[in-house]
Every structure is written in C-alpha cells, then in structure tokens.
Design brief:
This protein has one domain. It is 8% helix and 21% strand. It contains 4 helices and 17 strands. The structure holds 2-acetamido-2-deoxy-beta-D-glucopyranose (2 copies). One 2-acetamido-2-deoxy-beta-D-glucopyranose binds next to loops. Keywords: Signal.
Amino acid sequence: MQWTLLAATLVAQHAAAQSMLRFACSQLVVERTDPLVDPGKKYTEHLHQIVGGNAFNVTMDPAQDPAQLSTCTSCSFQEDMSNYWTAVMFFKHKNGNYIRVPQVGNGGPQGKLVNKGGLDLYYIPQGKVTAFKKGFRMIAGSPNNKDTTRNKGNICNRCWTSSNENQFVGGAPCTGSDSMDVPADPKCKMIRQTVIFPHCWDGKNLDSADHASHVSYGGSRGASGGGACPASHPVRLPQIMYELMWNVTEFADKSIWPTDGSKPFQYSTHQDGASAHGDYIFGWKGDSLQKAMDAKCNLDRDCPKGGIHYQRPDKYSACTKPQQAPEQVDGWLKRMPAGAPAVKA
Ligand SMILES: *[C@@H]1O[C@H](CO)[C@@H](O)[C@H](O)[C@H]1NC(C)=O
Ligand SMILES: *[C@@H]1O[C@H](CO)[C@@H](O)[C@H](O)[C@H]1NC(C)=O
C-alpha cells in the first residue's frame, strides 16, 4: 500500500518527465584525473568516480569525438560514449583513516538498475529538446561551493533508511528533508546523492571558462525537466540527472565515528556536502540522442523507434580502464587522496 502510494506520488510529480530516459552505468575507473577542469593533470586535488566511454583521458580535446575514439562504454546504451563523473564519498574512522564508501545500483518505479559501482543516469526532456552537440561539456555545482542553499533543489543527499534500494524512501529528488549536507545518522543505510544539471543553453558555446556560464538552470528546480529557459540561454536541452547510492550500512556503528568533530561521511573534495558536483562530456554517436529524445525512449532497453540499443549488465560492466593516475583508492587509506599519490593505511 505504502509503495503504491509513493509510486503514484512520484509518477504524479514526474508527470512532465514521464518519457525520461533512465539507465545504469558501471564504474569505468576511479582516479584523480579531470579532463574538464584540469586537462593534462594526472593527480588533481580530489578523487573521482568515472563512468561512460573508454576514451576518457587526462586530456580530451573537444575537437575529438569520444563516440569515435571509444571502443566500449560502461553505460547501458551502446550509442552513449559520454563521460560522467563525480567526487566519491569517504568514511572517516575515529583513528583518522579513510575508506571509500561502496556504491550500489538503484531501484525505483521503472525497476531496478544493475551496476557495478557507478551511477544511474537520467535524460529528462520537457517538450521538444535539442540534444547536446559534439564537443559539449559542462559542470553542475562547484567543488569550491560552501553555500548549502546555492544549489538547493538540484544537488542534494537523502538519508535512505531502507536497506533495500528498491524500496522507495521519500518524495521527488531534492525535496523534503534532502540536504546539501551529507547526513550523519546511523539510521541511514545508504545515502542517495542527486546531481541535476542546468538544461538551458546559450546556443553558441560548447563550453565556457568556468564550464558553467554557457548553461543556466531554468524556471523550476528538481527533476521536472527544469522549467522555462531565460532569454540569455534560450535553447532547451534534455535535463541530465545523476543518481548515486552510497552504501553506508557497514559504517553504522557510531563507536567508530570520529570524535574530533569531523564528519563521518565526506566527499573527496575535502569540503562539506555543498561542494558536491558533477562533470559531463557529451559523447553520444551522431544524432542518436536527439532521435532517442524525439522518440521518447524511456526505459533501459532497446528502443527501436529511437534507434538506441541496450546492452546487458555483464557487457557494460566489463568496460573498464586502468588508472592513468595510479594510486591506492580501495581499502583503508592514511588520508584522503590529494597532492601526492595516496598511501595504504
Ligand atoms: C589518451 O591521450 C594520450 C596522450 O594524449 C594518447 O596517446 C592516447 O591515445 C589517448 N587514449 C585514448 C583512449 O584516447
Ligand atoms: C550494503 O552493505 C551491506 C553491508 O556491507 C551489505 O550487506 C549489503 O548487501 C549492501 N547493499 C547492497 C545493495 O549492495
């Protein structure tokens, strides 16, 4: 009963977004490179988890097409060689050591998505949308942001009190008690992170110096498609949403939490939850995304009228890449990766 009610509420809240494309992406690699913000630099200041096409590289020249260079993708659709990445979450033990929090797939009204690490992707169209062009890239949020109200409604964390990722908790993304701060409550079995990107484009620039000012949020917050676009950024893009499930269950014992006032769950940015952000480099083949949006493809399966092809989880999960900035990222670490390569505790 409760599930039916929640599902009905969710569907109602997503009325504008019923044709959203929702699919799983497994881990391509976990490393510090960031070809958008720090091209050419191997050990940037924070660790990322990256999914998508295997042409992901330390430097990604916008003139080169990831759809041509990639030989596989860790996402469900064969045509999607885009790269998507975020900071990762760490648990801090009271002894001062850190460990990366495991990521799991998610459920939801359209059924469970299967991924090995990684994240769930949404492309939410509102009416007729214009797909991204080759070379397009952008960032949502900022690793330097400290203002917990700035991205309210678009970037948030939810305390997922159910140990079953298929049993829905809460309302629409970034509503209710969802917060930019990372919850620190032993009742949370998982922490669901949402990153919603701007969906209004200036129609001219594929990127900008801050990787953000060529795009803008629209008239509404949340996963509704984004609302009306301002005159400065009149072109309506599909609204991209990342959804990550950080499984904090194994860290529920409060007696191992820090006693020095620091938070048990922290993003790899070395700042609070307000620093959460997402990076995107477009890499769909040809006009496949435009066709899929026009045809209202909406599930993680073949969509013949939109011409996109689903691949099975064992196939996309097998698309991985060795670290280009090699360092220890699993198990207990003496400190969070930054500066020189990290060392095992
Ligand atoms: C990554 O970049 C290096 C150096 O620019 C280049 O030699 C290599 O071919 C690139 N790899 C891929 C998969 O694009
Ligand atoms: C979350 O972590 C717990 C504890 O390690 C584990 O038992 C559980 O299976 C994990 N959940 C998922 C969905 O992987």
